[in-house]
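Technical appendix A lists one of the benchmark inputs used to test multi-chain prediction within the project. The record comprises two sequence entries:
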Amino acid sequence: MIKLLLKNFKERVIYCLIIFSTLVTVGILLWIFVFIVKNGIMHLNLKFLLSNYSGDETGIFPMIINTLIVIVSTIIIAVPIGVSTAIYLTEYGENGRIILVVRFAVELLAGIPSIIYGLFGMVLFVTILNFNWSILSGTLTLSIMILPVIIRTTEEALISVPKEYREGSLSLGVSKIRTIIKVVIPSAKAGILTGIILAMGRVSGETAAVYLTVGMVPRIAKGFLESGRTLSVHMYLLAKEGISFEEAYATATVLLLITLMLNQIVKVVSRNEGN
Amino acid sequence: MLKMNTEKNTASKNRIIENIFSKFFFLSAIISIMSLVIIIIFVFAKGIPAIMEIGLMDFIFGKLWRPSSNDFGILPMILGSIYATIGALLIGVPIGILTAIYMSEIASKQIRKMIIPMVELLAGIPSVIYGFFGLIVIVPLIDQIAGNGGNSLLAAMIILGIMILPTVINISDTSLRAVPKEYRENSIALGASKMQTIFKVVLPAAKSGVLTAVVLGIGRAIGETMAVILVAGNSPQIPISIFDRFRSMTANIAIEMGYAFGLHQEALFATGVVLFVFIIILNLGLNLFIRKVSD
């Protein structure tokens, strides 16, 4: 009887721990959001969003534009390469050994810390190729960094396309490449899009690698060979130098809203897939 | 005759297009391999000479980091990174696994549907935001308790513990859900309780997934830079207690790279090499383990 009670008691404790852990996870997320948005929303106005960062002005407009430039150019480089890699891995899987090596490389690339990407970009693009701290150096570095995200999500999406689609198309005499472009990729569209959005999130939040390759000039970059500070680097500098906590809260709020927005888009995309 | 010719033409044209595309896909796939190779080459080529000049032992086991007087020992940073990572695991792994257990074994479908986007959001928050949150919330809290200014190993452990949560939860959840339903049903049918079933049957069956989650968590924690810089205090000393300031390997690189040159700069790349070696060993170890388990 006592043993039975004890077992019950022990189980109850474990159950409580499980509930507690879940509450901690959820609670921390809410805490971060509420705390930052509550303190940041007051300073968030059009003037802050749309003015420059020089002299008296403390706006984040240049950082927003630079972040957009970096995101778009990184996506333009990385997506075709990443999607093609995934196509090779799933549709042209005859050469087992190469596939194995590619998979291993992608896995390792995914595990490399962003600061190492930053170091690499600094040696090769900033110094040796003499692109200096610039959008170009950062874009090239980040493109490699987000390849694994795009490859993996695209691969998953391609694998989940039923085999019958391919067989059906091929048996109608459609060539392999047309089957891939006209049948397989359209059916995997939502998954591929999800990967792209996740990659955008990764780029917009990236700090260490950007800091070492794009630099931190708080002006809109007028060309690909110019330096430009992104939002997350701005956030880091505001927090690190303790320049202004008001600005830091407001910038953090903008970054959180971007995260929230991208997450919503992913949700909408994957819901459409279900229909 | 003419028609046959055009058919022949389109066929050969198709073959050419097919060829071009498959070459392009192949080349794209090779880019990942090449990228990995050139990253390793460039980072190592810049870091290894410094290690040779300083001496491997002096570099890795040197306790003094004072670039101005040519002291380049990174033991404090190596230990700092290891301690912070262990702390992050102690905090993040139990909470993460238990949350995953709740999501996959206990929660109703609706509650599960509510928690999943939250975990996704946690994964999407930029690391610099975690650092900022640590700086304005966790650091003052620790200061109140310990009166040490708050920047400390403990602050970094907590922030990193939070940051690895989504990784641990997602992968554990996936592997828990991959355990066949029959395991649970059989265990319950044999008279085991729900908790016994979870901890004695389901969790052991999912162990390789859970271990993967832990290893990826280690990778995330040991490689994190900005969040750690904002809460660690960054003194290059070996931390004796969790309330001490410390500097991670990543912080060492990011903080000093802006103004370093010559041997000092190379020593920072060498710090990157050591970090890289940690990551490679971690990945290889995981690969070997998974292969062993799946055999």
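Chain A has two domains: 2-43, 46-274. Chain A touches chain B through 84 residues (CB under 8 Å). Comparable benchmark entries are summarised in Table A2.
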